[in-house]
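Input:
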Amino acid sequence: MNIAEWSGKFFLIAFILYTASFLGFVLSLTGRKWSNRDPQEHTRRWSRMAFFLSTAGLAGHLLFFFSRWYIAGHIPTSNMFEFMTFLGMMIMAAFSVVYLIYRTPILGAFAMPVGIVILAYAAVFPREVQPLIPALKSYWLYIHVTTAATGEAFFAVGFAAGLMYLLRTVDFGAKTKQARKQQRGVEFSLLVILIIIGFIGSIFAFRSIGYEAQFSRQVVTIDENGKEQVATQTVDYVLPPLIKPYNSETVQMQPFLGLTAPLAEAPSWMNGVNAGRKLNTVVWSIIAGLVLYGVLRLALRKPLGAAISPIMEGIDPEDLDEINYRAIAIGFPIFTLGALIFAMIWAAEAWGRFWGWDPKEVWALITWLFYSAFLHLRLSRGWQGSRSAWLSVIGFIVVMFTLIGVNLVIAGLHSYAGV
Amino acid sequence: MGTVLCESCGKPLYDDDGTAPLEMRYDGVARRSQKANPTWIDKIWNFFSSVKVAVYLIIITLCGAALGTIYPQENTFLNIDPETYYRETYGLSGFIYYKLGLSHTYESWWFIGLLVMIGTSLVVCSLDRVLPLYRALSKQQIRKHLNFLERQKVTYSGPIAAPEPARAPDAQEWVERMASHLRKKRYRVYTDGTALLAEKNRFSRWGPYINHIGLIIFLLAVVLRSLPGWHMDKHIGFPEGEIKPIPDTPYYLKNEKFTVEFYKPEEMSEQFRKKNETVPKLFETKAVLYECTANCGEPGKEPVLKEAARHDILVNHPLEYKGLMAYQFDYEMKPVLLSVKAMLKNKLTGKAYGPFLIKMRNPQTVYEAGPYRLQLKDYYPDFDINEQGQPVTKSSEPNAPAFIFLITGPDLPQQGETYMYFPRQIDKQRFRQDDINGATGSRFDITVGSMNDVEVSNYISYLNIRVDRALPFIWTGAAISMLGLILGFYWQHRRIWLRIDGDRLTLGAHTNKNWFGLRREVAAALEKMGMKVDPKSLEKR
Ligand code: HEM
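Output:
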C-alpha cells in the first residue's frame, strides 16, 4: 500500500475511534442506572475508556494530517476537505484540553459529535490533493488558517457546553411563555444540526447510487470591443434537481422517484448556474433535516430537547456555564490572532492590502465582534447562565456561517470548491 | 451610585447587613462617570464610558458590516457604472441596495462614524476605569471587614485545625504556615497579625486596558491612511523590456522578463489529473526599480535613472523599497514591438549603413547611418488612415508603428527626401510602404537583419503599486492588542483574604475569571492545613 492509501485509512480509523469514543461517553452517563454497579465508578471507568479512544482517534488523525502533508508537499489546509478535516481535528484537540481541565464526561457526549459532524461534512468535498495556485504559496496563509481554526475549535467546545447548559436548565415541562420560547429555541438549534446532517446524508446517499443531472445555460456578455460573446456554462447536480438554474436547459437528468423534470426554476436574481445548484442543495438539506426531525420526533414521542435532557441529570449547571465561558475565553485570543491579525499579515503580503472588505474577511470580523460583545456583556452586565449559553450557541452559528455559509451564499476570494 | 465599598476595609457602605455576593468590580470604587450632578460634558463622558453603549455600538457595527456583504461592493468591480449595474444584475433589490448606499457600506459616513464612536468609547471607557482600578489595587488593606469576607463569591468559615492533635491551635502560627503554602503557589502574601492577604497575577487586570490601547492605535492608524501621501494604490501594466515611470513617485520600474508556468501533469496527484484542469504554478516578474535623480518628468529630456532595487516579484513576494511595494497582480499575453536595430541600405550601391536603434516608445529624433542622416519628421505609434484619407494614430500604444524620416546625405537634394518606414512586416504590406515611398523607395530600404535585432515584449505584467505608511502603526496596534488579550485571558488576578478571630477562620477569595481554578486552589491550600473541603462547597450562591 502506498502512503496515499495509508493516509486515507488513518482518516477512516480516526473517524471510527471518535464515534466509538462518543458512544463511550454517552454510555458512561446513561449506563449509570444499569443494575449491579456503582454509578460513580461506572462513569469513571467508562469515561476514562472513552477519553482514551478519543485520544487514540486524535493520534490517527494526526497521522492522516502529516502523511497528507508529506504527499502534498504543503500543509493540507488548502481546500474545503482539508480545511474541514483540520477544523475537526482541532475541535478534538480543544475538547481534550478542556476535558483535561474539568474532567466532565458529559462534555464528551456533546463536543465529540460536533467534531464528528464536521468531519463527515468534510468528507462531502472532493478529496484529491490539488496543486497549489501561486496565491496560496505563503507560510502566512497556513499560519492564518490553522490558528483561526484552532480558535474556532474552542468556540465549538463553548457551543457544546452552551447547548448542554440549555438542555440542563430549560424546563421542558413548563408551559409559561418564557419557558416555551426557550424550548422552541432549543428545538430549533437541534433542527439546524439535523439539517446539516441531512445535507451530509443526502449527498452521500445520492452519490452512492451514482445520481447525475446536468444543466446548461447560455450567457451573453459584452467584451471590451463591444462585441457580444456567447458562452455556455454547464453544471452537474449530484442531488436530484428540484430547482434548476435560472434560464437553463436540461442536458440530461436521471429520473428519481417519478421526478423527471425539475419542479421549479431559481429566481432571476440568482445569477449563474452554480447559484441554482446551491439553492437546490439547500432545499434538499432542509427537506432531509425536517424528515430526520420528524422521524426522531415520532419515535421519541416528545420534543428532542425533552428527550435528550435526562442524560444531563445531576450535572451542575454552574459547571457548564463555567466551561462555556472558559472555552470562549481560551479561544478568543487565538481567534483574534489567527482570523484577524495573521489574516491581515497574509493579505498584506499576498494582495498588498491588509484589509479588503472581502465577504469572508467581513464575516471573520463579525464573528470577532460578536464574541467581544459576549465577553463585555458577561463581564460588565452579568450576562451569565442561560443568556451566556444562548450567545455561545448563536456565536457558533455565526462561525459556521463564516466558514460554510459565506461560500455557499456569497462568493469571495477565499471560495473553495462547492457541492 | 458612587463608591459602594469602604475603600480600605471593604465594609459595604450601603446594605451592610445583607448576605448577597458583593459588587466587586473595580473593588467598588467610584468612577468619573458616576458623578451626582452631571454637566453636559459629563453626560457625553457618561455616554461613551458606558459598556452598555459600547455593546450597542459593537452590535450595530456588526449588523452594518453584515449588510455590506449581501451584494458585492462597488470596489470589487473595475469600470462599472453602479447606477445601472446593480439594477441590471440584481434587479429591484439591487437597485434599492445601491440607493441606500449599501454598495459602498464600508466607506459610508455612518459606518465610519460608528468606528469613530467605538474609538471614542474605547478611550473614554478605559480612562474612566483604569485610574480608580489602579488606586483600589495599589492601596489594599490586609484586614478586611467580616461582612466583606463572607459576601465574596468564594468564602469559607470554620474553626482552624491544630497542626498536632495534642496542641491547641495558635492563630499567629496558622497564618504563617498558610502564608508559606500560598507563596509556593506563587502568591504574594502580606500578613497583619492574624489577618492575611494573598494576591497573584495583578498584571492580568491591565490586560483589557492594554488591549483597548492597541485597538485605539489600530483605529488611529486606519484614520492616518486617509491623509495625503500616506496611502497609494495603483495598478500599472509593465510590458517586458520597457522602463515605465510610476506616477507620483521618483521611481521607474522595468519588467525585464515575465514568466508564467503551469503545473505539468506529472506534478499533479493521480486523481486530480483526471479532471484535466490547467493550474498555474508561478507568475514571476523580474523587476528592476530605478530612482530618478535628474530631469524627472521634464518633457523632452531623458530622465537620469539610478538602479535602486532588483527583485523577482512573485505572488506573496512583493518588491519592497523604502515603503514602496510592487505586487504581482495580473498579466496579459500581448506581443508588442519595442525596438529594432535597423540598417539603411542603398539599393543602388548595395551598401548597408548602420545599425541604429529605433525605439517604438519615445523615439529619438535623429539617427546617423554612415554618411546619411535620418531625421524623424513624424511618428504614428498606432498608424491608420482616417475617412478623409489622412494618416492618424489611433492610440499612443505602438500597435502599428509608422515613422516618417527625412533622409539627407550624399547624392540627395539639399532639403532631403522623405521616407516612410513600417517596422512590422504586416503593416508594411497592409499600408503598402513601397508604393508610398515611390522613387525614394527604389533607392533606399530600411532593413532589419535577423530576429536578434528585434526586441519584442510578449507579456504585459500588471503590478499593484502600493505605499502604505500606516502599516507599522497597524502592526504595532495589533501586537499591543494581542499582548493585552493574552495577559487578560491566560492569567487571572486572584486574591485571598483571611482573618482569624479566636480560633475561627473566615476566608474570602476573588478572581476576575476562572472561579473553578480559584476554588480548587483555595481548597488545596486548606487541605494542606489539615482542613478537607470540597471545592464546590466554597461557592456562595
Ligand atoms: C466600544 C468600546 C469599548 C468599550 C467602552 C470597552 C470597554 C471595556 C471594559 C469596561 C472592559 C472591562 C475591563 C475590566 O473591567 O477590567 C472591557 C473588557 C474587554 N474588552 Fe472592551 N470595550 C470596548 C471595545 C472593545 C472591543 C472592540 C474589543 C474587541 C475585542 C474589546 C475587547 C475587550 C476584552 C477582550 C475585554 C476583556 C473581557 C474579559 O476579560 O472577559 N473591547 N472592555
